[in-house]
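Regression test case RT-17, inverse folding.

Input:
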């Protein structure tokens, strides 16, 4: 069963190039995301590149790995988290006043059962965790907006 699509968007008063520079610099992901503590790409940033990530929720820390599935400069960055099969993406679209940035988490083939089990056991259940993820996505976009408009 597919997991619900989680999506947040924000309009940023800055050019696409500036927003892309912030979004595509993965080592800065901890500045934006309230859950990500580290994200490191191996090799040049492109489709197929691998990353290792460290996430945190309160007192829980857990590593993940991912593979970049789409890398279209100034348009889209997407990666699949290997441990749970979710795809996270950032899409940029020019607007009259700058850039619309959309962050999405989808799992069209569902989240891996082991991930669901762990979320239910350690993170208060899937609905609660997904609500928290959506709040984090909105916080992430607000932080990127603030940095881009500085």
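Golden output:
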């Amino acid at each position: 069963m597919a997991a619900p699509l989680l999506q947040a968007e924000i309009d940023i008063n800055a050019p696409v190039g500036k927003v892309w520079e912030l979004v595509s610099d993965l080592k800065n992901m901890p500045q934006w995301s309230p859950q990500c503590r580290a994200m490191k790409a191996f090799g040049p940033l492109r489709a197929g590149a691998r990353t290792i990530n460290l996430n945190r929720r309160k007192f829980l820390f857990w590593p993940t790995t991912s593979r970049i599935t789409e890398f279209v400069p100034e348009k889209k960055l997407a990666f699949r988290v290997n441990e749970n099969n979710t795809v996270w993406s950032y899409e940029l679209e020019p607007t009259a006043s700058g850039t619309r940035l959309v962050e999405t988490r989808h799992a069209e083939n569902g989240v891996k059962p082991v991930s669901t089990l762990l979320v239910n056991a350690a993170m208060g259940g899937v609905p609660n965790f997904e609500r928290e993820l959506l709040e984090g996505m909105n916080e992430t976009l607000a932080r990127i907006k603030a940095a881009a408009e500085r």
